[in-house]
Automatic annotation (TrEMBL):
GO terms (BP aspect): L-tryptophan catabolic process to kynurenine
MF GO annotations: arylformamidase activity
Protein name: Kynurenine formamidase
Top-rank taxon: Bacteria
């Protein structure tokens, strides 16, 4: 039997029945080690606020939220549903209609597939998409199968190392650049790490049109780098991990295919790295937990770094 590789990618390197990918590398021992990084009790919130005008690719559809009941008209509902209130009680809420890839979010292993010679699309571990897809997402690999992610996190500040506020659209970061930045920071990537790469592109967050015009990202050679380091997840401060325009014309989002479909390494996007970049926090404990939405291909997350 041939050894696992990006060319010979299924069964998964974690077994033919595996559904959690590189999160198999998260163990009680690695979680305890991550907690050991917390010395000051300082919390950094790395998620953007989800709101009506935030940038989001048209493929995912716009974010929509509106007041469903106010305290004023909610009182009538409560009177009808719960008998007449005598203590002045009422409640109000929002109704949401959003993509599972809204705001700061994580991509799940069923988000991307690779088309084969026979026309079928295969998901992680060689699962045939048409065997699992339905009106309600997929019956395998849905985000509800992803465990909470608690791990050591590492920041690689590529933009800062190059002395720029942000890298230009289409800039493809290469493995040797990652290594150079890590050496300059005095930081080492270890097995089981979450790696956050700062491109500076999130400076455009308040300018949705500019944010969506393109982006710097990880060159496709970074796939083998990630596999060699045995990381569990990337995080980027832009919307699609890969550079846009594409590194190689016609090759759309190759890091998505290599990481999600083949290696089982997840991708977090629209990460707000400003809090840790500003304070040069290069090593930390990271916590990310997706919503348990059956069949979903990703989820908004509240991404937290602690030191």
């Amino acid at each position: 039997m041939n050894a696992w590789s990006l060319e010979n990618w299924y069964p998964s390197r974690f077994g033919a029945d595996d559904v959690i990918g590189a999160l198999n590398l998260v163990t009680p021992q690695t979680v305890k080690a991550a907690f050991g990084l917390v010395k000051k009790g300082v919390i950094y919130d790395l998620s953007f606020v989800m709101e009506q005008d935030m940038p989001i690719p048209s493929f995912h559809g716009s974010f929509f939220a509106n007041t469903q009941y106010s305290l004023e008209n909610g009182a009538e509902w409560h009177h009808l549903a719960m008998d007449r209130m005598t203590n002045g009680f009422s409640a109000q809420n929002l109704r949401l209609a959003i993509s599972d890839h809204s705001g700061t979010h994580i991509d799940q292993l069923n988000h991307v597939g690779e088309q084969q010679a026979d026309g079928d699309f295969l998901l992680y571990n060689g699962i045939r998409n048409k065997d699992v897809i339905s009106t309600f997402g997929t019956s395998k690999l849905g985000i509800e199968t992803m465990p909470p992610m608690i791990a050591r996190g590492v920041l690689i500040d590529v933009a800062g190392h190059k002395g720029v506020d942000m890298l230009p659209p289409g800039y493809a970061i290469q493995p040797e650049e990652l290594d150079a930045v890590l050496a300059a920071q005095g930081t080492v990537v270890k097995e089981g790490d979450v790696v956050l790469v700062h491109t500076g592109w999130a400076r455009n967050w308040r300018q949705p049109k500019k944010m969506m015009e393109g982006e710097p990202g990880l060159g496709k050679a970074c796939a083998e780098w990630a596999i060699g380091k045995n990381i569990i997840c990337w995080g980027l401060d832009q919307f699609a991990t890969d550079p846009v325009p594409y590194e190689t014309p016609g090759e759309a989002l190759p890091m998505h295919i290599a990481m999600l479909t083949k290696a089982g390494i997840r991708l977090m996007e629209n990460v707000n790295m400003a809090p840790i970049v500003d304070e040069k926090v290069y090593e930390f404990m990271v916590i990310a937990a997706p919503l348990k939405i059956r069949g979903a291909t990703g989820s908004p997350i509240r991404l937290i770094a602690l030191v």
